[in-house]
Amino acid sequence: MCPIDDPAWKNNNPVRENFVPEPLPLEALYYKYGIERSHADNVARNALELFDLLAPIHGLDLKYRQLMEIAALVHDTGISTDLEKHHKVGRDILFRHPPAELPESLHPVVAWTAFLHRKKAGENKLEKLRKTSFAKMPEEIQDITLKVAALLRLADALDYSRMESRLGSSKFGKKAVVFEIKGPGAAIDAERMAKKRDLWDLLFDTKLEFRPESKK
Predict the structure, then answer these.
(1) Sheet harboring 166-172: ordered strands across?
(2) What is the tens place of the pLDDT at every residue in 17-34?
(3) I want to staple 150 with a disulfide (CB 3.0 to 4.6 A). Which of 107, 190, 200, 215 is the partner?
């Protein structure tokens, strides 16, 4: 029985209750929860490119690059269990089965980034988040989580069309960065990225713009 289907599991929300996590390797998570590998790989690729390009702004240490990749690879863990609520289900699964490749201190980060990758992420959502066990984490871990989630939202949006969109050229200004998006689904994905930059906008003064690559 999948843990999320266990009545005892449902009655003891892992976000609020004490429990003993059982880490699983990434390959086991892929198999157990039917993660769509092509999408996961695309989002991880996008996330790492954004992590590297925007490093002077987000300020995350290079040691968190693997965290960024793994968070991207497992962000849709709950999708085969409950499509409509997969961000919540994925969070709960990842609290129960965090990726074994990460140190224990970073296990909560992947659970919360899975939760934060979907739906709007405005000030109201952050206020609600501060009333959960999220607020009990060390402030440094909260900060890392929000920054990783902001990048993950953009990386996920870049693969929204499932048409292999990629980051093209980028232009850095004093208070803005303009990205060109390449590929047949560029217009769709650029528009989606503009919608999913809401969390980034709450965290950083530098604005991000996304435009389909111009055809010459």
Answers:
(1) 166-172, 176-182, 207-212
(2) 567 899 999 999 999 999
(3) 200
Beta strand pairing call for 166-172 and 176-182: antiparallel
CATH superfamily of 21-160: Hypothetical protein af1432 (1.10.3210.10)
Select from 188, 182, 181, 184 the least CA-distant residue to 208.
181
Q: Is the whole-model pTM more than 0.85?
A: yes
Sequence-separated (6 or more) residues with CB below 8 Å from residue 11:
none
CA distance 3 to 69: 25
What are the CA-CA distances from residue 34 to residues 27, 37, 44 (Å)? 10, 9, 17
Which uninterrupted H or E stretch holds 194? helix 186-195
Tokens linked to 130? 């501060």
Contact 39, 86 (CB under 8 A): no
Residue count of the chain, please give it: 216
Q: Domain segments of the chain: what residues?
A: 21-160
Beta strand 166-172 with 207-212: parallel, antiparallel or unpaired? unpaired
| Tally of CB atoms within 10 A around 204 | 17
Confidence of residue 10 (pLDDT cuts 50, 70, 90): very low
